[in-house]
Structure formats: C-alpha cells, structure tokens
Amino acid sequence: MMSQLNHRGLAELAKIYGGLFYLKMGQVHMVAVSTAEMAQQVLQAQDSVFSNRPATIAISYLTYDRADMAFAHYGPFWRQMRKICVTKVFSRKRDRSWASVREEIDSFVKNISVRVGSPVNIGEMLLGLTKNITYRAAFGSMSQEGQKEFLKIMQEFSKLFGAFNVADFVPWLGWINGQDFNTRLAKARGALDRFIDSIIDDHMEKKNKKNNKNNGEREVDDDDDMVDELMEFYGENGAKSSEPISITRDNIKALIMDVMFGGTETVASAIEWAIAELMKNWEELKKVQQELANVVGLDRRVEESDLDKLTYLKCVVKETLRLHPPIPLLLHETATDAVINGYKIPCKARVMINAWAIGRDGNAWAEPNEFKPSRFLENGAPDFRGSNFEFIPFGSGRRSCPGMQLGLYALELTVAHLCYTFNWEFPNGMKPNVAIPTHRLNNSTVYLN
Ligand code: HEM
Fold first, then answer.
1. Measured between alpha carbons, how far is 29 from 337 in angstroms, rounded to an integer?
2. Dist. CA 233–CA 249, nearest whole Å
3. At the N or C end, where does the chain have fewer CB atoms within 10 A?
C-alpha cells in the first residue's frame, strides 16, 4: 500500500475523495492537498501553521538531528540557516556556482560530441553533469580526487532516505527493521563525517593562511566555494565566527547535503524530461531550434546573455516543470491543530501537497496532459514564482526553493545547448507518437537511448 502513496496514487485517490483528504498510517496523520485552492490555504493563508517539515527516523539521524535547512522546523534556527543560504551560498553574487554550471556544461557537450551518430544514455549523463556542477560549487577544485567517494556516500544516503522503516509509523514495531538498519545509518553518517571533516580542515587551513596574510581581514576570492562561504560562520571548539550568526561542523555537513540532494536529481530530471518531450513533440523541438538559430545564429555557442531572448525555450522549460515537477510531492507538517475548509487537521500531521496533480488539474488547465509550451505565451499565463497556486514546481512561500535561480540557470542553459548543438533521434528506428522527419542543424545527430 505504501508504494501507492506517491503523487500518481494520491492523485487517483483525490478523484474520489477531493482536493483535501485525510489518511492514517499507523500512528501518523496524513493529509493530501491536490487543488490550487487548498494549496493556497496551506502555503499562503495559513502558512505559519503549515511550514514545519516531517522527517523520518533516518532523515533525522542523517541530517544530524535536523541541523540543516531543508529539514529544520520553521523557527529562528531555520530562519538563520535560510538567511545564510539565500544571501551567501545561493546568491547570484557568488559567481563561482554560476561559473561551475557553464564550465561543466561545456565539457558535457564535448563528451556528447564525440558520441554523435551513436546512442547515448542521456539520463545517466545528465545526472553526472548535475553532480559535477553541485560538487564543484560546494567544494571547489580543492577536492576533485574525492568525488567518487562522495558520490558513493550520497548514494547510500539516498537509499536510506527512501527506505521504508515501519518504526516511522508504528514505533513499537521498530525491532522489525532492527539493528541492521541502525548500523547502516551509523556507517553512512560516519563516512560523511570523515569525508567532510577533512574538507573542512583543508578549508580552515586555507582561511587561516589568508587571514594571516591580510592581518585578520577577510579577502573575498572569486574562487571561494560554498564551504569557504560557510566557514565564515563557523564558530565551534574555540573557532571564532566573523559573522553574528554562528554555525557548527554538523550544520555545515547537513547544509552541504541539502545542496547536493536539492540541486542534482531535480535539475537532471527536468532536463531529461524536457528533451524527452521535445523528441516526442518534434514540432516543438523545431520551434526551439529555430528560435536558437534566430537569436544565436549558427556560428557561435549559446551564451548566458542569450537566455533572456529565448522566449520559447523558457515556455518549454515551464511546460516541462508543469507536467513533470521534479519534486512532485511537497512535504510539510502542521505545527499546531488547524482548520482548512471546515476540516480539522491535527498537530504534527504530514501534509503532502501534490504539485504534480495540481499542475494537471483539468479545472485549472486546458488539455492538462498535453505538452503545449505555447500556453505560456498567453497573456496572464501563470508563473512559477509562487503566487499562482496552480503552478508550484518550486513550492511557494516560506519553504519554497531557495536554489530556484541557480536550478533554472542550469536547466535553461543545458536545454539550450542540447537543442542548439545536436539533433535528437530515437535509436534503432524506434518511433515516438509521430514520425520524426530528418532535420539537421550543425549536422550532428545524437540518438537518445
Ligand atoms: C529544477 C530545479 C529545482 C526544482 C524544481 C526545485 C524544487 C524544490 C521544491 C518543490 C522545494 C520544496 C518546496 C516546499 O516544500 O514548499 C525545494 C526546496 C529546496 N530546494 Fe529546490 N529545486 C530545484 C533546484 C534546487 C537547487 C539547484 C538547490 C540548491 C543548490 C535547491 C535547494 C533546495 C533546498 C535547500 C530546499 C529546502 C528549502 C527549505 O526547506 O527551506 N533546489 N526545491
């Protein structure tokens, strides 16, 4: 039954039970929100009650007891972490992250270029791309050799985050998953401790050297990575933070994991869906390529400054996020008892806002299951910045995505490069819904595997 409680299963239940319905799993109260009106209630009208996060036993343990931003409950600690991230770590002013995106996309395109004419596993390659981007943005060039080890740690974290643990629902049945699960949790966190502790030590050494050189004054370096930014707030074991807010090693480790988990699969999945939809809807791919030819021409590469002029490409990205939001269920938790539409919702209820179902709601969208980017050209078309509740791929309000700008940048720039540089066809004569006429730009064709 648990496996049916995903966005699709909940959307089916919403057809029977409506835009707001209640479930009880063991001792856990759950509420599913499946319409824009109900989402507006939860994310805006009563957001102070609905801004906590639920966390399983595994998540609490692996985030050092919610020492991060994504799983911290709403309150002063979360506000501090969010402030650090928004003003420093994810800020557009911190050019290093944006530079990592450009550099990694360049080498990604080169890697595909040598495969022209043969099938590529684009999904796998895209995940590699976004992992490289976030890894470099987080740790800079200092720690390239450890990347493989770090990805292994992330993989285990990801499995443990998603593992079903009966103790989350019926605590006294915890013995069923037993000691093995707890041992795995301890091993995974131990590996992360060893890995990031050594990175923090390296960064600390670098910072001390710089401070000594500049008589204690901080020198902002264009090459500073996210750990450098976070180290400015580090104040533990005798270390003195230069900022009014002070964070610990555990906070740094947990925040880095937020960035790695928030910024890799989300962006990779959105790019993969965009390419898949464009291949299935060849006319749309042609429109995007024509726009790229008009704006960029045929004799140079796509640049960041082109993005603002690529109106249709942006519509394609929006339509992709409407149909395939990378985080289809937004998970919130009530801080107190609440009442929505006359229904009482208990304190500590797990609230699942179904962004996927809302984006496909026939009452809000015409032909909701069709891929039609041009709908976003219409006057008054919804935007994803959070005030149109029928379109919330980045959430809305207090807990909305702080990495939206960076994520969109990587998403738009990669889709632009992939459409501009290559033509895409299915391998082995496989046909999409419609036949794909041969259309060539720059004479390169890559087959999607
Ligand atoms: C296409 C790309 C992305 C999408 C669609 C996306 C979507 C989302 C969504 C739906 C949420 C939850 C909102 C809610 O609960 O109401 C979220 C939260 C979050 N995202 Fe993103 N995200 C993307 C990229 C990124 C990137 C690149 C980063 C970091 C570099 C990031 C970091 C985070 C963090 C840390 C949170 C938790 C915020 C909090 O709880 O206060 N995301 N994102």
1. 12
2. 10
3. N
Residue bearing tokens 């002063």:
76
pLDDT of residue 24: 95
Q: Domain extents for the chain? A: 6-448
328 lines ligand 1 (CB under 6 A): no
* Cα–Cα distance measured from residue 5 to residue 13, given in angstroms and rounded to the nearest whole number: 9
How far apart, in whole angstroms, are the C-alpha atoms of residue 293 and residue 324?
A: 27
Nearest to 42 by CA among 362, 363, 400, 326: 400
CATH number corresponding to 6-448: 1.10.630.10
Which atom of ligand 1 is closest in space to residue 82's alpha carbon? 41
Residue nearest to atom 33 of ligand 1 (CA): 262
189 CB contacts (<8 Å, ≥6 apart)? 61, 62, 64
- Give yes or no for a contact between 277 and 319, defined as CB atoms under 8 angstroms apart: yes
Q: Is the CB of 400 under 6 A from ligand 1?
A: yes
Which is the closest atom of ligand 1 to the Cα of 332?
A: 15
DSSP assignment of 177-199? THHHHHHHHHHHHHHHHHHHHHH
Q: What are 159-171's pLDDT values in tens digits?
A: 999 888 889 999 8
pLDDT the model gives residue 443: 35
Give the Cα separation of 163 and 165 in Å (integer). 6
Residue with tokens 């990347």: 147
Positions in the chain short of pLDDT 70: 141-144, 214-222, 238, 242, 433-449
How many CB atoms are located within 10 Å of the residue 443 CB? 8
Q: Is 296 exposed, middle or buried (0-12, 13-18, 19+ CB in 10 A)?
A: middle
* Residue matched to tokens 């429109």: 287
Is residue 135 in contact with ligand 1, taking CB distance under 6 Å? no
Q: How far is CA 426 from the centre of its chain?
A: 27
Per-residue model confidence (pLDDT) at position 139? 85
pTM over 0.70: yes
- Which residues contact residue 144 at a Cβ distance below 8 angstroms, ignoring those fewer than 6 apart? none
Element containing residue 333 per DSSP (H, E): strand 329-333
**What pLDDT, on the 0 to 100 scale, is given for residue 439?**
37
Contact by Cβ (8 Å): 340, 42: yes
Dist CA 181 CA 174 (whole Å): 10
